[in-house]
Amino acid sequence: MRVLALLDGTLADPEAPLIRVDDLGLVRGDGVFETILVVDGAPREQGPHLDRLARSAAMLDLPEPDRAAFERAIGLVLDNWTGGREIALKLVHTRGVEGGDGTPTGFALGADISPKVIRQRAEGIAAVTLDRGVEPGLMQRAPWLLLSAKSLSYAVNMAALREAERRGAAEVVFTTPSGSVLEGPTSTLVMVRDRVLTTPPADLGILPGTTQAALFRAAEREGWTTEVAPIAADDLYSADGVFLVSSVRKITRVHTLDGKALPDSTGLHAALDALYESEY
Asked: Name one Pfam family in it (predicted).
């Protein structure tokens, strides 16, 4: 099932043509997006997602997203949803049509969670490490690369996932040329060792994770230690657990990395999943 809401407060048919062929979000990837997980009608981290949408838009020099209009569109999707208990709710904001009057394009699209993602949540995934070609300090030296913006320009990320599939895996852990961990194409990495949860620092050009932040809040409340610190890729193989987290995938464990089985983290995954769910 899918429900499409426009920023003018109306619903649209998700099967009908909507985006103009000269929309810059389509022809150049010149736009930003967010995906919110909705469970039983309740959006998770809606405020942080809208904050991040505005932050990404500012990095691209886009018009500021109309927060009230997006909130109204979110409400329309939820009010008209009759599908499953979980929704992947995507918010899209583009620069609008090429040569137009500067009016941005925006909408909210709700869709069922993919059965593949639900299966991966339960069973875990195999991943491979791939070089992203990004070194510390690059984001500061070259802000025009938009390393920490959630832009529509996801061609590299999708190419990386196809490469993972060619290597017999389902996911990717991006690394720097010197061997530091970055993130997944659509997720944040969390490593666990001795009840310490570690995620790489955002100054590497990593998109700050809303689900990772929620998990860290819950973990800290229950006495776990959390830190934002560099992670060497080699350290992942001996960690108590390696997890890729995002709004839609929630907390997904990596059971195999570069063809090597990682330590069994089934019990740890259950504990982290319970911590995350306790936030809601």
From this structure: Aminotran_4
Number of neighbours of residue 140 by Cβ within 10 angstroms: 10
pTM comes to 0.94
pLDDT value for 136? 84
CATH 3.20.10.10 in the chain, residue ranges: 118-278
Could you tell me which of 240, 156, 147 has the C-alpha nearest to residue 190?
Answer: 240
Give me the residues of the chain with pLDDT under 70, please. Answer: none
Contact yes or no for 3/80 (Cβ under 8 A): yes
**What is the phi/psi pair of residue 24, to 5°?**
-65, -20
pLDDT at position 38 is 98
The dihedral over CA atoms of 81, 186, 255, 131, expressed in degrees to the nearest 10, equals 170
Predicted pLDDT at 137: 86
- Element housing 161 (H / E): helix 155-166
CA dihedral 274, 207, 44, 81 (to 10 degrees): -120
Burial grade of 244 (CB within 10 A; 0-12, 13-18, 19 or more): buried
For the stretch 112-126, pLDDT in tens is 999 999 999 999 999
CA–CA gap between residue 185 and residue 129 (Å, rounded): 11
- Give the domain 118-278 fold: D-amino Acid Aminotransferase; Chain A, domain 2 (3.20.10)
Quote the CA–CA distance of 194 and 253 in Å, as a whole number.
16
* Matching residue, tokens 């389902």: 170
- Contacts for 150 with CB less than 8 Å, ≥ 6 apart: 32, 33, 34, 52, 53, 56, 207
For residue 88, the SS3 value is strand
Residue 270 has a pLDDT of: 98
Indicate the CATH number for domain 2-113. Answer: 3.30.470.10
